[in-house]
Design brief:
This protein is of the alpha/beta class. The chain has 16 helices and 7 strands.
Length: about 325
């Protein structure tokens, strides 16, 4: 049975620790824990109940401090290591293949303001923070937006606690009555959900795993007579976070990918998302529209860089340009 007295007695420490650990990427139910803390203070706190709210204020400050402390770690890593940090973090999520893509889309639309709402969207906060670092957001701008987002998120959780206290007490009593069977059922359901997500992800990777080209084969093609069309399909924010591209590549856009002239030559798409999902999905769409030569560069930009092959730096103007052909000589 839940010890409401213990949770209430150590509420600030619990709030700081759980939000800090969650911000570092650990799979802990931070929001639910804050709801429980708020409920515990309501159940064991002073009467009348309004006197609980000043106590919740102290817990709220502890939660904000924990969030900022954890997020600063990844923000600093993002500033120093750029897109590599995003890929490392996406390995901590069950939706790792769409993790970077979706975050870059939201960041492109909202900019650093995405930090204010990121904690309400599973997986987004974990990637939005290092992306802000990779995008060289000013430290002061990052801190106040991140603090504002954590404030709203934690306030909602803690504020819901007193209102949900009767429900939580009833649920706790029911679980105590049900005994270990309820725990076993919860574990089975959680395992089934994880297995379902894994099967879906495996099926997606298998479907997109065909029609690929290796770095070595692409290099050979680029050295031959029939030069392929190489298209960088990263988002604008992805290019700004890692401002380099394969020499000779074209910075792609939706308009270009509709160009019927692409069907006349070998087309190679690359991106920076895990498992090349963004490029593979677009290549699949091109093949469906008749561009049968569209393939995906295995490993994307990271594999090309790892092989020590030529890259061209992008300035800010180039990284936002939709159709710029990158010169052999960046100077």
């Amino acid at each position: 049975m839940i010890s409401y007295e213990l949770a209430a007695r150590h509420a600030p420490q619990i709030a700081f620790a759980v939000v800090f650990v969650a911000s570092l990427g650990a799979p802990v139910p931070a929001f639910a824990t804050l709801v429980l803390v708020g409920a515990s203070l309501s159940i064991t706190g002073p009467s009348p109940s309004w006197q609980v709210w000043p106590m919740l204020g102290g817990v709220l400050l502890a939660a904000i401090a924990g969030g900022l402390a954890g997020d600063l770690v990844w923000f600093t890593c993002g500033r120093r290591y750029g897109h590599r940090t995003l890929h490392a973090l996406c390995k901590l999520t069950m939706s790792r293949d769409s993790c970077v893509i979706q975050t870059e889309k939201l960041y492109g639309r909202w900019g650093a303001w995405v930090l204010v709402m990121s904690r309400f969207i599973p997986g987004l906060s974990l990637v939005a923070v290092p992306l802000a670092g990779a995008m060289k957001v000013r430290v002061a701008a990052f801190l106040w937006r991140d603090a504002a987002g954590t404030f709203v998120w934690a306030a909602v959780a803690l504020g819901a606690g007193p209102y949900l206290a009767p429900v939580l007490k009833a649920a706790s009593s029911a679980l105590a009555t049900a005994g270990p069977g309820a725990l076993v059922a919860a574990i089975v359901l959680a395992a089934a959900f994880v297995a379902y997500r894994h099967v879906r992800r495996t099926a997606l990777i298998r479907r997109l795993g065909t029609h690929r080209i290796s770095v070595e084969d692409l290099r050979a093609l680029m050295s031959g007579d029939a030069t392929p069309t190489v298209i960088d399909v990263r988002s604008v924010d992805g290019r700004q976070a890692d401002p380099y591209a394969i020499v000779g590549a074209v910075l792609g856009s939706d308009a270009m990918l509709q160009d019927a002239a692409l069907a006349a030559r070998q087309v190679v798409l690359y991106c920076a998302s895990p498992n090349d999902v963004a490029a593979a999905t677009l290549a699949e769409g091109l093949r469906a529209r008749g561009v049968r030569t569209a393939v995906t560069l295995t490993g994307g930009l990271a594999a090309w860089r790892k092989a020590g092959l030529a890259l061209v730096p992008l300035d800010r103007k180039e990284s936002t340009a939709p159709l710029s052909k990158l010169s052999e000589d960046p100077d």
